[in-house]
Design a protein that fits this description.
The protein is an alpha/beta fold and 260 residues long. The protein is built from eight helices and 15 strands.
């Protein structure tokens, strides 16, 4: 298990938001925290602590007035910590190389490869050709419907027909270096983790996985370590002191290092 930090950017600001509140209308987003610091400040903090593999997420849709300010913040963070962070949000083959050149270790993709309710393998192959499998992370954003977890896209609002299971993860792992798994229903709510999802991911565990969503205590970290058999990395958002929460970064790092 490793700690993977995050920098979520919305309307040109580093924020922590309730994931299920994201829509095309920026004014309707529910915010937990808005930082006065720029994205580069957080990237420099993670660089100082030698924390790698974190992710920068652009939460604004391309073509909106907010997107360019958000992109500028993301690029500033990548340049502050070259090779230290991943970036996602609106990634396509046309722009993936630009973010890698700006300093991203990987690009993170969801909506581009999940279209019309299913995996678009042609687009997936275009991305691997553009940046290489070694630079590609697939964001498998998960929401529960009935007894199963489904991939959701378009800022977590649209269900696909793809059920997250062993077969599904096996198929996609041949195209990607890592998975980033957002448990969308608990994202930003400080309400605890999705136990069933964590257990499923830990049982699979064939390539690096990072779990995001609902972690609000040291006990949650312990639970993910136990359910995931130590195979799942964790990212923590609004519960961290860096984003106005109560979990101290140094204590989280010490906790995770104790598992090694």
């Amino acid at each position: 298990m490793q700690f993977r930090p995050c920098i979520d950017i919305h309307a040109g600001k580093v924020k922590q938001i309730v994931g299920s509140s994201i829509t095309d209308a920026s004014s309707q987003v529910k915010e937990n925290f808005v930082s006065e610091k720029g994205a580069a400040d957080f990237a420099l903090l993670y660089k100082k602590k030698h924390i790698t593999g974190g992710h920068i997420i652009l939460l604004d849709k391309k073509g909106t007035p907010e997107y360019e300010a958000t992109k500028q913040q993301a690029v500033s963070a990548l340049k502050a910590y070259p090779g230290g962070m991943q970036v996602g949000g609106g990634i396509t083959p046309d722009c993936a190389g630009e973010f890698i050149a700006a300093g991203a270790s990987h690009v993170i993709v969801t909506s581009y490869v999940f279209s019309d309710g299913k995996i678009n393998y042609d687009r997936l192959q275009e991305l691997t050709k553009a940046v290489g499998k070694e630079h590609l992370v697939l964001d498998v954003s998960a929401r529960k419907k009935g007894d199963d977890y489904y991939v959701v896209t378009d800022r977590w609002q649209k269900f696909t027909n793809e059920i997250i299971c062993e077969r599904f993860l096996d198929e996609l792992s041949s195209y990607a270096d890592e998975f980033l798994i957002h448990a969308v229903d608990v994202e930003g709510k400080n309400s605890g983790i999705e136990h069933e999802l964590a257990q499923m991911l830990g049982a699979w565990g064939k390539i690096p996985l990072t779990y995001a969503g609902g972690i609000s205590s040291m006990e949650d970290i312990d639970t993910i370590y136990r359910l995931g058999h130590g195979r799942i990395n964790v990212t923590i958002g609004s519960a961290m002191d860096t984003f106005g929460g109560h979990l101290q970064l140094e204590e989280v790092l010490e906790k995770i290092n104790s598992y090694q």
